[in-house]
């Protein structure tokens, strides 16, 4: 690649790092530490798990990297606990063998979805044991642990205590007959095995189950509660938490457990597979030898321990309240745990732990009118997404555009295809392709020199393009503000609005051969501005679709850039950064049309309740948490269709040049491409999805295709 002709300005280019580089926080700067909930290491992840936590966190970490912020994204598998031990028994493996197997499945799945963890580790490591035991001992030293002797279920045949999933029985709350010892799938309540009515041993229902006393250590959550509540109030305000099931949009604590007063919680178990309870408790802990620490206690310490397995300097990230902001991503069922239980452990430990700054919880993604179900073969699991032949970028786009931020959302094959064809291909792909093909054909693959000086554009109001530049600056400002507040779905909408605005610009300017001949200065100006917008777009889209950015950068033959910031007046972001005379690369197609008929094929491959959602829910999963609410804002059909009307209005205002005979439209191309060969408050979220940019909506089916391709 020839040297790119790029404006010389500090902070314009993205910092790049050699393989094996480990980011460490920089004093006095904003350093971003990101975690996604550690997936259990005993099953296949499905699309809902991916959008709920790992993919969202990936987008946020990539966004921060586009700002050249020191960013660390940590994830890994949660390996201890009865769920693993029980599954291992079923599969005839040791827990370690089971975890090795599923760690690999998870890793491969996330790699395919292009998730860019700084490190994807696991919790069954010596460092994890050390860190967990250290916290346990600090809590003991600080008098936040107490010993209790309680009755537990015990199987006489197996001669063992039946903790959590080793016991089943009838739920005392809803009478569901197959409640597990840790949770009831009928009513979703967490249970203590001893509460089960008619308890039975899961190994063999004929085994005799009795109660027997056992000694366990309890975390005195009641003693820590005043401090954790004070911390919640501070962090809620500082980190601008979205309303969730612990604290609402006014900062009022609504969790029932906190309101009733927390109770001491058992943090040890009669099991073998886990972090051993550390010795040295003296009289006070007599009888806890040989037991393990409960998996809910050790799991969140996986975040620091996985970091410790990445770098010996892990404490720079985890004991750094001043310079590090911790963002944690999870499904909504995990919020209590990350905002109450885990912070209580850290507060009780009394070292200066980096505490949660912003919590991002998502609702659930459902599948084709029902729920994901491995046993009924409904949905896409693990690396199965690969079997569709659709690149990971399109999957990422669709999942993120439907991210269940404020209500459950629904995966549908028909919407998936519409998203690809109408938004990615006809809007985004069309803008990039049309511009670059014109430059390649008419300007010998260069950025034409124009009358614009290098640097941010500030056009006088009488300039033809003043409105365009103002709109782009405003969109970039909106994008930055959404992304900084982790409103990922809306950030992605803005990216599509930027490319839609680009299409309108080309259309309004009447870019074609006639313009080139009649007004070459104007034509060069338009192409130079459009190419510079494409470079900005590559950075805006990079958190969502990293491979798409790579393809654009190959086509532009230039290095990755940062997402620009606007100044206090809301402008100064968009300008001429890629200069006249710069030599471009070869054009590539970013997206390929998907035939509508594929929906039926994929329904056949991955199962479907065939639109009979009500029947499926009734007959199917008793497990549900109520019927899925359709998230209007999140649904592709709602979002895109709604925007479609608006964009038609807008497009009408711009004179549409007629396509010449024989001109191709990218929308109808059948050529295969290889671009992928090579990531405020909820009340507001609902009402203002399109508010600040409402006159530049995302185009829908037809509008992009109506834009003629350049005559070549
Ligand atoms: Zn129940
Ligand atoms: Zn038994």
Automatic annotation (TrEMBL):
The keyword Transmembrane does not apply. InterPro entries: aa-tRNA-synth_I_CS, Anticodon_Met, Met-tRNA_ligase_1, Met-tRNA_synth, Methionyl/Leucyl_tRNA_Synth, MetRS_core, MetRS_Zn, Rossmann-like_a/b/a_fold. One of its GO terms (cellular component) is cytosol. It is an enzyme of class 6 (ligase). Its main location: cytoplasm. Residues 463-609 form the Methionyl-tRNA synthetase anticodon-binding domain. Keywords: Aminoacyl-tRNA synthetase, ATP-binding, Cytoplasm, Ligase, Nucleotide-binding, Protein biosynthesis. It holds the Pfam family tRNA-synt_1g. It catalyses: tRNA(Met) + L-methionine + ATP = L-methionyl-tRNA(Met) + AMP + diphosphate. Residues 32-436 form the Methionyl/Leucyl tRNA synthetase domain. The keyword Hydrolase does not apply. Residues 654-668, 676-690 have a biased composition (Basic and acidic residues). Residues 610-619, 634-646 have a biased composition (Low complexity). Residues 610-712 are annotated as: Disordered. It is found in: Cytoplasm. Its EC number is 6.1.1.10. One of its GO terms (biological process) is methionyl-tRNA aminoacylation. Belongs to the class-I aminoacyl-tRNA synthetase family. This is methionine--tRNA ligase. The lineage of its organism: Eukaryota, Fungi, Dikarya, Basidiomycota, Agaricomycotina.
